[in-house]
Design goal:
The structure is a homodimer. With about 350 residues, the first copy, chain A, is an alpha/beta fold. Chain A is built from 13 helices and eleven strands. Chains A and B meet through helix 8 and helix 9 of A and helix 8 and helix 9 of B.
């Protein structure tokens, strides 16, 4: 394997393979398993309270002494449109009644969202070596604080323009997220339609536009796709869907089962669950929101509105009313320990005995 | 360069690089230039009359003795919905009046479409060694006729399922067309939403599902993307957009110029021009059809309806009312001879002195 640049030294890892931070899926156990294998485990704490974030970080630390990354959501907190939220809650109530989902109407005016800014200090305090982020660029103060203590920053770009901006802001590495990726789009420049660029051309073009290392994300799941990323000029890969059905994943049993039967064409982009574009397996909830034709509140308002409904569905192992984030290479994701999945990837690229 | 399988011998070419058949763009001169350089030139004759097809084939033959491929559209001829066509013509007349496009209302009931079946005999008569096709699978009789005379067949797939079907029908090679590709989607299984799978996961997954050679298409434009295709398991690549602005391209000057200023995010999928999904640079015509919110007649009805309007726009070098098919790696397509573009690709993969 010839990578364009060596990022293993600066990340203190053995292999330039990053386990994608998947909020709601990734556990501290998954992160520590990958860290112990020599990859970069990523703990997602986007939107969580400082207290919960700290608990999760401590849980990883209790399981491994290897370094790992923590992932933030660096969006601005939006104003809430109470009218849009009201109309959406009518729909959620209707669905709840029809399908016994136990939705209780919420007082949206009292919603309070956590900013990544509340998490910066604790990350520094906990000596987290790598902070990755998505949905934006941290403000200059946060960047300066993190960099002053030697934290390495990895931003997410879905277009060449976003990648160039991240480099200009002093970010150390870029995750180039192709349209194939499961979960939320990291898009933060909203000056036109959602960028929908495939991993292959996106990585190739970002690698030519910036000097900092680029990590390829989206559709990567095996030896051939990892090697392709290296050929495109990437310095590493980020892999999410391959770990969706792992023993350490929070995915409900019916979701893990569904992954065994989908094909590469079964995921779509939707704003229905969170207010932000994300890729997942098409299901009844997406269709119901689309059919209703109502305006979907912005992220994270819609995300909060649908939280209890999704949680209730998950408790019932019901895949029709919770988000099934998955990428275009998620089919047949293996149901085994994350470490075994990781080692299999290493074997496929001939790196297992390094 | 290590390709998974060697297709150069069976295609009688030197390099497994195929110039994409781009109807309305590709000239006999482009085909012969690529053929002379040792690549596979592809002459598009989809939907053309046998007479025009023969003329174009003879033109290529007058310029080169090297083998080349001919590309067919293997769709069924649909019934015409006169009402939909009528409503669409109202819009075309409105646009024409507003923007001086000289549209003349057509008698749709007299439309006659050519089937690829009318072209099979002449391809055999002309001893065309390679026939590629898109929009479907030729009927069994046509496949048998072509194969009986030693013609090599290349089909187009946009999903694993389509690829498997092509292999089952005895097709010799598969072009795996990722969502990044410019121009028409080759999709022919219409049992759900349009497959929108990226080249990277699509090629990787098709290569694992079939035994016949796979040619990667969509987003490929330089050495790094060609090498990535090889890493994915492809036996060759098909490249279109890189030749869009070549001297031998029929693209109007304003289109060639526009290519110098777009980015990887500026193309979108549309049915507005032809009735079939295709990727091109967003322009006024697309937007006008979308805004009208009317039903778009199926392919090739809509294609015929918009032909004169597009031709008139092209005469005026007006990019607002003609299709600007282009892929996600079309930006800065070089304005030089196709042979120079081809040789540059060879240099980038270290193959120029083979």
């Amino acid at each position: 394997m010839n990578w364009d640049q060596d990022i293993t030294a600066s990340l203190s890892i053995k292999y330039p393979i990053i386990q994608a931070p998947m909020l709601g899926i990734t556990t501290p156990e998954m992160v520590s398993a990958i860290a112990d294998e020599g990859g970069l485990g990523s703990l997602p704490v986007g939107g969580l309270s400082p207290e919960t974030s700290l608990q999760l970080i401590r849980k990883v630390k209790a399981k491994t002494t290897a370094p790992f990354a923590v992932n933030l959501f660096t969006h601005d907190i939006p104003a809430i449109d109470l009218n849009d939220a009201d109309i959406m809650q009518d729909l959620l109530e209707d669905l709840s009644e029809k399908y016994y989902l136990g939705y209780e109407r919420q007082d949206v005016a009292t919603f309070k969202f956590h900013s990544y800014k509340e998490q910066v200090e604790l990350l520094i305090g906990e000596k987290i070596p790598v902070v990755s982020f998505t949905f934006g660029i941290p403000d200059e103060t946060s960047i300066a604080q993190l960099k002053a203590t030697g934290v390495l920053l990895i931003g997410t770009a879905t277009s060449v323009k976003e990648a160039v901006l991240l480099e200009q802001q002093g970010i150390d590495m870029i995750t180039a997220q192709g349209i194939e990726a499961g979960g939320h789009r990291g898009t933060f420049l909203e000056d036109g339609p959602l960028p929908q660029v495939g991993t292959l051309p996106l990585v190739a073009q970002i690698c030519k536009a910036v000097k900092i290392p680029v990590i390829a994300a989206g559709g990567i799941y095996d030896g051939s796709t990892i090697k392709a990323a290296a050929a495109l000029g990437a310095a590493g890969v980020q892999i999410g869907s391959a770990f969706l059905a792992s023993d350490e994943s929070l995915a409900i049993p019916a979701f893990k089962q569904a992954l065994q039967h989908i094909s590469e064409t079964d995921t779509v982009l939707t704003r229905s669950f969170s207010g932000r574009w994300a890729r997942g397996i098409r299901n009844k909830f997406m269709e119901a929101v689309e059919e209703a034709g109502i305006r979907i509140p912005v992220y994270p308002v819609q995300n909060s509105l649908t939280t209890s409904l999704r949680a209730n569905a998950q408790k019932k192992d019901n895949i029709n009313f919770t988000n099934l984030w998955a990428g275009q290479s998620a089919a047949k994701a293996k149901q085994e320990p994350a470490a075994a999945i990781f080692r299999n990837l290493l074997m496929q690229i001939g790196a297992s005995d390094q």
